[in-house]
TrEMBL record:
<dbReference type="GO" id="GO:0005886">
    <property type="term" value="C:plasma membrane"/>
</dbReference>
<keyword id="KW-0812">Transmembrane</keyword>
<keyword id="KW-0067">ATP-binding</keyword>
<feature type="transmembrane region" description="Helical">
    <location>
        <begin position="179"/>
        <end position="197"/>
    </location>
</feature>
<dbReference type="GO" id="GO:0140359">
    <property type="term" value="F:ABC-type transporter activity"/>
</dbReference>
<dbReference type="GO" id="GO:0005524">
    <property type="term" value="F:ATP binding"/>
</dbReference>
<keyword id="KW-0472">Membrane</keyword>
<dbReference type="Pfam" id="PF00005">
    <property type="entry name" value="ABC_tran"/>
</dbReference>
<dbReference type="GO" id="GO:0016887">
    <property type="term" value="F:ATP hydrolysis activity"/>
</dbReference>
<dbReference type="InterPro" id="IPR017871">
    <property type="entry name" value="ABC_transporter-like_CS"/>
</dbReference>
<dbReference type="InterPro" id="IPR039421">
    <property type="entry name" value="Type_1_exporter"/>
</dbReference>
<feature type="transmembrane region" description="Helical">
    <location>
        <begin position="149"/>
        <end position="173"/>
    </location>
</feature>
<feature type="domain" description="ABC transmembrane type-1">
    <location>
        <begin position="46"/>
        <end position="324"/>
    </location>
</feature>
<keyword id="KW-1133">Transmembrane helix</keyword>
<dbReference type="InterPro" id="IPR036640">
    <property type="entry name" value="ABC1_TM_sf"/>
</dbReference>
<protein>
    <submittedName>
        <fullName>ATP-binding cassette, subfamily B</fullName>
    </submittedName>
</protein>
<feature type="transmembrane region" description="Helical">
    <location>
        <begin position="36"/>
        <end position="57"/>
    </location>
</feature>
Amino acid sequence: MADPKTRSKGQDGAPQGSTWAALRRFWPYARAHKRWLWLGLWMIPVVAAMSALRPLLVKQAVDTDIAHGDLIALRVTGILFLAAVMAEFLATAAQVYALSRAGHATITDLRRSIFGHVLKLPARFYDKTPIGNLLARSTSDIEALSETLAFGVFTILTDVAVILSILVAMFALDWRLTLVSLAAAPLLWVIVAHFSARLRALQLEIRRAQSVQSGYLAEQLAGVTVLQLFGRERAAVQEFERLGDRFLRAVKTANWYDAGLYSVMDGVSAMCVALLIYFAAPYLFEDVARSGVTLGLLFAFIDYLQRVFIPIREFSAKLATIQRAVASLERIYSLLDEPPEARIGSGADPLQGWTGGLQVRDLRFGYREGAPDVLKGIDFDIAPGEVVAVVGRTGSGKTSLGRILTRTYDGYRGSVSLQAPAGPVEVRDVVPDCLRGHVLMVQQDVFLFNDDVAFNVSLGEAGLADDPARIEAALRTVQAWDFVQERGGLQFVVGERGRNLSAGEAQLLAFARVAARQPTLLILDEATASVDSMTEHKVQAAIERLLRGRSVLVIAHRLSTVRRADKILVLQDGVIVEQGPHDVLLARGGVYAELYRMGFQEETDDGNSGAQPPVPAA
Ligand SMILES: Nc1ncnc2c1ncn2[C@@H]1O[C@H](COP(=O)(O)OP(=O)(O)OP(=O)(O)O)[C@@H](O)[C@H]1O
């Protein structure tokens, strides 16, 4: 990871390194497509040479061919001129094609790397990084790069080569006319510097305004149901317009400066031509042998001047594009520098033959360094095949416990050891990929992808995705097969976040994910969402089936689940205050009995009353 101390923060909060360092680090991505890059680079001298050659041919036609009345030579010069035009056109076309092909292929690789990398980042990273930031990095930052790769870095090299070749040709032809032609250069420099500094600031403002507006759009769309339910659509549109106005204001000013720069440059180039004609005119009436100035030479210089102004005018805009791209690169690098989870292990699976026994001793855990622990010295065991329920008020640390057992968060103290046949294995020593082959968690908030039922159960896992019989069996286990069949089977698309399903049905699909994989230890965070009594009955039956035949730690909200458990852990403020079976804890009349009285009392004894109240909030 890059040393943060060696980087300072620039505009937009991007760390600033040197432009070359940023571009050098980019090379490994571009290297895979270097054949196209080389082709693009080789075209640069061709374009530059042809640019300088054409005015020379005009001079040849006027001063030699026409002056000597040589029609054949004039025709040959004409053909050469056409060939030079064709060569320049073909070289430019090849260059644009090769560079944009290399650029887009490189960007595709980089985009894949970013996506692959962020998927491996730990939960702590997501706690501090809004998803909007990540989206900006993989969309607008990548676009800025793409623009630069296709048009910035290499075309600027072509521009430099064209300017240099024209200057060399001009000096070789006549140094006095060259100096006169370049008399306006300092003025030009001042104008370009002023306009481009302003344009650069405006471009930055445009990008900021754009990202604020798209962030607002994304959030409002995600919460569209809330807006509609509360009749806030109009207000949202007004705010969107207000944000759009900021963007439009910046664009208008930038357009003004852009137009200003172009017309001022046109004016300056016309001034240079006028100056040239004024200076050269007397020589035209002198003896050519003495003055060296001919009509053809004048034509060539006018042509050169017009050619040299185009790349000069665009030079600053391209430089600004490169600067933007470097800022984007820096932001992308800071993301790529985030250390990923060590996922892939080497060697044999240390949990081979593990039957689900677990021993937790003096477990302590805090989310951030210096912040108070949320788990404060916890001890408990789970025997193979045992169902252990965790209950406690909101914020007591139940979910955190599940996160430790699945290594969603690292950095616990104490011991969480899995009793494998070859000896106890600490959870922190098992790579997540391996651990999650044995320990799975069903979260309280079900997330379904906008895809069909088959994908939502298999998540595209090889061996499962192509085995519909296994997926169907999992759906049958959790009693979801009937409703899936009614909706048209495994290919039924559940909609974004499962909006085409009821809350209970979505939950059954989440259970089916686990049933299809048969983990040795299941962590189940029961949902508190109320569902209709019919679905509730199905959910309870599904949970009952999931609990069978494996070790389970269930964060329980239903009386039926708590009663079914072999043992109950009562968590309070990060500490286990009571531990034992339901009847024993109830008889004790302590914290559990209080929770029971407040939370579960409305449920009938058969645990089959329909929607169950959760354990109450503190
Ligand atoms: N990602 C996080 N970063 C920092 N603190 C967190 C994070 N997640 C949870 N906490 C804090 O840790 C404590 C325990 O939270 P946890 O989610 O484990 O409680 P819980 O018992 O599962 O609550 P609930 O029943 O409401 O789900 C709470 O004080 C919570 O604010």
